[in-house]
Amino acid sequence: MKINYLMPTRIITGENCLYAERQFLSGLGKKALIVTGNNSAKISGAYDDAVKTLEANGQRHVLFDKVMANPTDACVYEAGLMARREGCDFILGCGGGSPMDAAKAVAVLALIDLSKEELFSAAFDRALPLAMIPTTSGTGSETTPYSILTDSTGSVDKTPMKRSVSSPLLFPRLAFLDAKYTIRLNRNTTINTAIDALSHAVEGMLCLRANHLSNMLAKEAITMIMDCMKDLLAFPAENPAAFPPEKREKLLLASSIAGMVIAQTGTAVPHSMGYLPTINWGTDHGRANGLFFKSFLSWCREKEQDSADKRIPALCSALGTEPEQFFDILELLLGPHEKATETELQAWSKLPMKNAANTYIKPEQKDIERIFRESLG
Ligand SMILES: [Fe+2]
Predict the structure, then answer these.
(1) CA-to-CA separations, 117 to 83, 135, 146, 153, 218, in angstroms, rounded
(2) Which of 95, 168, 253, 313 has its CA 20 to 30 A from that of 106?
(3) pLDDT at 175
């Protein structure tokens, strides 16, 4: 058994943990660039807490609040320049997956002049220290070495595509998990981010690089998220604050644990497939992954009949249910699937799926087409 496990992020949890444990932040530098979107960090109270904490530490700060959903290469270059101009020596990512993923690239671009291709191929040897304050419970970016960006001129035909920057230098030094920042999240965001976290843990178990440590973490994250399913299904749409706070806390920690899983394993083919509805239709990332799960897991179960590598039983044991019951729950959460046109199905089925090679049974192009058609046809 070969394991090479790295997880250098200090995780600090609990209500008001950022302020209470602010001494850890004080070691990161003298001036922070706070990287956020224009909304969630402020509405959640995380931005105000960050400012209060930095001021109590005697640390200066400037704000970059222009990170959009699915952040672009242009956005992180702009923020990187701002960090340099302002003399920032550490980066505080605050918000959902988009601001945190952007913050990681900014931490590099603040120090080094890089072409876009150099950035995406991780041709860098340093980055500013990073601290993260997640305000959603899904991405797990606070515990991964990945920055997922939209390359605005990326693919062969110059249409935007999601690309990943991966480097151990992108592991945040600190992650502050305070579920109070998530209490205002509405039904859609709560469910979609929970599905994202669940997809990280489930896919992690189905990746070639899965090992004893990652499976241990994945099983725990899956159990924690499944324990929230009843409440997610009964989500009080008119009053998000009525969603049980202890379940918010559980989802937040589970998403960080699921991040620790994919930090080791990467993701499997549903994440590659999910980028297409996200880029083309604006489908939320977690939902986009979830749309493929029923078909993907059914395909895995079928294929592993003839394989020595059987993983679905261990997955079912973590889920605490048989696949059919899990699919029922998932489909209730998702509601009716989006429909792709025949042109889209044909075009998407032909695209290379980067994570196919990382999936424990590698799907061929015809399998990808089948999963697209069953999920979106
Ligand atoms: Fe994800």
Answers:
(1) 21, 30, 16, 11, 32
(2) 253
(3) 98
Q: How many Å lie between the centroid of ligand 1 and the Cα of residue 183?
A: 21
For residue 148, give the DSSP letter.
Answer: E
Helices (H), the chain: 17-20, 22-26, 40-44, 46-56, 73-85, 97-109, 116-120, 187-205, 212-226, 229-233, 245-265, 269-281, 285-290, 293-303, 312-319, 323-334, 342-350, 365-376
CA of 55 to the centre of ligand 1 (A): 33
Those residues of the chain that have pLDDT short of 70 are: 154-158
Q: Are strands 146-151 and 161-166 parallel, antiparallel or unpaired?
A: antiparallel
Distance 248 CA to ligand 1 centre (A): 18
Give the per-residue pLDDT at 287: 98
Q: How far is CA 206 from CA 297, 312, 316, 319, in A?
A: 10, 8, 12, 14
Distance 365 CA to ligand 1 centre (A): 22
Distances, alpha carbon 203 to alpha carbons 151, 185, 303, in Å = 24, 25, 16
Cα-to-centroid distance, 316 and ligand 1 (Å): 21
The answer to whether residues 36 and 68 touch, using CB atoms and an 8 Å cutoff, is no
In this prediction, residue 161 carries a pLDDT of 83
* Separation of CA 80 and ligand 1 centre (Å): 24
Q: 23: CA distance to ligand 1 center in Å? A: 31
What pLDDT is recorded for position 115?
95
pTM of the model: 0.96
48: which 2 tokens? Answer: 């105000």
Distance between Cα 209 and ligand 1 center (Å): 17
d(CA 108, CA 76): 10
State the pLDDT at residue 157: 61
Q: What is the DSSP track for 289-348?
A: HHTTHHHHHHHHHHHGGG-S---HHHHHHHHTS-HHHHHHHHHHHH-SPP---HHHHHHH
